């Protein structure tokens, strides 16, 4: 199968193979960047954070989320005298936090769908080439064109599905990380307001 995919980059479906590869490269780039930010750079020790929320100072709480977008929201919660003022301050930052965490995540799902559609478009093109070969008068030419068209159709389908499935899997994982961090932020904000009231 790998040999067939490599060969398809020089066959009639080559433009589709290269387009799918470009979409895959985009997906991989976005996925790696979001993975780095969400899983490594912005990683939060939830146990340490919740311990600080129960018995620690505001400085200790903020130190637990120092490198994360949640720092902006929780630090807003330290400003204000009443519970309502704290909630309002954190609520005003929540939209920015969500935007920062989920930046470009939707593009992964789009890339998965585009790769699949390009694969199907390559399939249609390969079949057009194959059926176009049936009108050739020379038997040898007809056989070559039909086989090239069908090979191109199957290869672009396979490559589009491989890239599409990988992109959608990456999207599901990254989106799960975003949801998890947002849930952690909401819980931390609620505990912070409750324990500091």
Can you characterise this structure?
The chain is mostly helical and 197 residues long. The chain has one domain (2-196). The chain has eight helices and no strands. The protein has helices at residues 2-8, 14-41, 46-55, 58-64, 70-76, 83-101, 105-132, 139-196. α2 packs parallel to α8 and α6 (83-101) runs antiparallel to α8 (139-196). The longest helix has 58 residues, at 139-196. The chain is rod-shaped, with a radius of gyration of 26 Å. The model has no long low-confidence stretch (mean pLDDT 89).
Task: Please supply descriptive tags for the structure shown above.
197 residues; mainly alpha; 8 helices; 83% helix; rod-shaped
Topology:
Blueprint: H1 2-8, H2 14-41, H3 46-55, H4 58-64, H5 70-76, H6 83-101, H7 105-132, H8 139-196
Helix pairs in contact: 2-7, 2-8, 3-4, 3-8, 5-6, 6-8, 7-8
Number of helices: 8
Estimate the helix proportion, in percent. Answer: over 70%
Compressed to H and E, one letter per element, the order equals HHHHHHHH
Number of domain units: 1
Q: Note the overall shape.
A: rod-shaped
In percent, how much strand structure appears in the residues?
Answer: under 5%
Number of β-strand runs = 0
Radius of gyration: 26 Å
> For the residues shown, what is the average pLDDT?
89
State the secondary-structure class.
mainly alpha
Query: How far apart lie the N and C ends?
Result: 64 Å
Low-confidence stretches: none
Biggest beta sheet summary: none
Give a short summary of the structure.
This protein has 197 residues and is mainly alpha-helical.
């Amino acid at each position: 199968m790998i040999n067939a995919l490599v060969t398809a980059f020089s066959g009639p479906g080559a433009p589709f193979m290269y387009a799918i590869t470009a979409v895959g490269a985009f997906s991989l780039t976005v996925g790696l960047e979001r993975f780095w930010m969400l899983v490594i750079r912005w990683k939060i020790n939830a146990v340490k954070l919740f311990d600080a929320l129960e018995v620690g100072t505001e400085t200790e709480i903020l130190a637990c989320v120092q490198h994360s977008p949640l720092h902006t929201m929780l630090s807003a919660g330290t400003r204000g005298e009443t519970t309502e003022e704290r909630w309002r301050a954190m609520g005003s930052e929540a939209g920015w936090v969500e935007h920062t965490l989920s930046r470009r995540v939707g593009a992964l799902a789009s890339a998965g769908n585009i790769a699949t559609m390009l694969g199907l478009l390559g399939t249609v093109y390969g079949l057009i080439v194959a059926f176009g070969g049936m009108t050739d008068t020379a038997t040898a030419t007809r056989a070559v064109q039909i086989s090239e068209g069908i090979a191109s159709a199957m290869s672009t389908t396979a490559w589009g599905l491989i890239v599409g499935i990988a992109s959608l899997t990456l999207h599901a994982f990254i989106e799960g990380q975003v949801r998890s961090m947002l849930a952690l932020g909401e819980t931390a904000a609620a505990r912070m307001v409750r324990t500091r009231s």
